[in-house]
Design a protein that fits this description.
alpha/beta; Rossmann fold; seven-stranded parallel sheet; three-stranded parallel sheet; 14 strands; 16% strand; globular; binds NADP nicotinamide-adenine-dinucleotide phosphate; Methenyltetrahydrofolate cyclohydrolase; methenyltetrahydrofolate cyclohydrolase activity; photorespiration
Length: 368
């Protein structure tokens, strides 16, 4: 999946992109923002990103306090700060957890089932537990040995399905090779499927006029980043790179639900650059370092990089560092907005899991 090669002219240095204070739903007050057409100037506190066909022609930094003060024209992408947004979301979740508890006595609960002893999975589970504690969500866990049976896993799922203190159940993937992932994920009650991987939730996501009870966390986090930066999706051309069940496919469905025109690119796609160059919004989830080069992007495109790929780095104490699928140095000179890796989509996944768990507790207890 991940490449260990990184071409020398492509780095994850964040120096070519600039930070833009994100737009929260409650407070819309950026210090600097991007406008491309005059109509964006009309509303200083709710700027909308009007994607342009030429960055150099349209991109202009404007002081939010004084929209008439056009200053510079440049070709540096704004950074979409996933760390900051995820912190905002966690704060919002924590406040809602308190409101729910004070009004009803209910404390949201998340159960995590871990099978086996993969170090990366153990780390993810530990981080999820810590994140729950930080926002006041109660954690439950079941750690099962690698050689346990599917029925044992299903028995634990069933207990959590019945436990009224548990509002969300997550089975840490990947499962050991001998297990049927579909059978296990289908065992999770659809009402507690906070990962959104139950076939019924995915099916509802795919169908017109239906809504899933939960949306998978990573793609939901990608869309949330677009919303929080007030980036329009409707009527835009979007390309999703990757078609996995957990990221690419649901990301494409979400973009389509938001009225983008969506194309999916995968490992068998011919001339991917030509297709990606048409896109106003690119979400990349291929797991291939440096796959997306600057000249694959339309000037002014918004780039959401989901990929997390280790690449050799002799200067790092660990001997490697993490990069995305997108050649950041090149892309940040072409794109209007870009997520860094790390610090972009990554932190959003756990924030969305907490948000889904809260949503579940509120729904089960009919709390608005
Ligand atoms: P996956 O299951 O391996 O799927 C990768 C997808 O990318 C497949 O659909 C594959 O196409 C496609 N692909 C592979 N090489 C390609 C290429 N050269 N050109 C175009 N498409 C290509 O991976 P995943 O689980 O979706 O994860 C993708 C990346 O996101 C990984 O780096 C992973 O670590 C990262 N990730 C991050 C988060 C987060 O929280 N930030 C969460 C989940 C995953 P085929 O279908 O044709 O094989």
């Amino acid at each position: 999946m991940a490449s260990t090669l990184l071409s020398p002219d492509c780095s994850t240095s964040a120096t070519t992109a600039r930070h833009l204070i994100p737009l929260t739903r409650k407070l819309l007050c950026p210090t600097t923002r991007l406008v491309s057409f005059e109509r964006c100037l009309s509303s200083p506190w709710t700027p909308s990103l009007c994607l342009s066909s030429s960055v150099s022609k349209y991109r202009t930094a404007v002081s939010a306090a004084d929209p008439s003060s056009m200053t510079t024209t440049d070709t540096t992408a704004n950074i979409i700060d996933g760390k900051l947004i995820s912190k905002q979301i966690k704060d919002e979740v924590a406040a809602e957890v308190v409101r729910l508890r004070e009004a009803t006595g209910v404390v949201p609960g998340l159960a995590v089932i871990l099978v086996g002893s993969r170090k990366d999975s153990q780390t993810y589970v530990r981080n999820k537990k810590k994140a729950c504690e930080a926002v006041g969500i109660k954690s439950f866990d079941a750690n099962l040995p690698e050689d346990c049976t599917e029925d044992e896993v299903l028995r634990h799922i069933e207990e959590f399905n019945k436990n009224p203190e548990v509002h969300g159940i997550l089975v840490q993937l990947p499962l050991p090779m001998h297990m049927n992932e579909e059978r296990i994920l289908t065992g999770v009650s659809i009402e507690k499927d906070v990962d959104g991987f139950h076939p019924l939730n995915i099916g509802r996501l795919a169908m017109q006029g239906r809504d899933p009870l939960f949306v998978p966390c990573t793609p939901k986090g990608c869309i949330e980043l677009l919303h929080r930066y007030n980036i329009d999706i409707k009527e835009k051309r979007a390309v999703v790179i990757g078609r996995s069940n957990i990221v690419g496919m649901p990301a494409a469905l979400l973009l389509q639900k938001a009225n983008a025109t969506v194309t999916m690119v995968h490992s068998k796609t011919m001339s991917p650059g030509e297709i990606i160059r048409q896109a106003d919004i690119v979400i990349s989830a291929a797991g291939v370092a440096n796959l997306v080069r600057g000249n694959w992007l339309k000037p002014g495109a918004v780039v959401i990089d989901v990929g997390i790929n280790p690449v050799d780095d002799a200067n790092s104490p660990r001997g490697y560092r993490l990069v995305g699928d997108v050649c950041y140095e090149e892309a940040s000179k072409v794109a209007s907005y870009i997520t860094p890796v790390p610090g972009g989509v990554g932190p959003m996944t756990i924030a969305m899991l907490l948000s889904n768990t809260l949503l579940s507790a509120k729904r089960i207890h009919n709390f608005k």
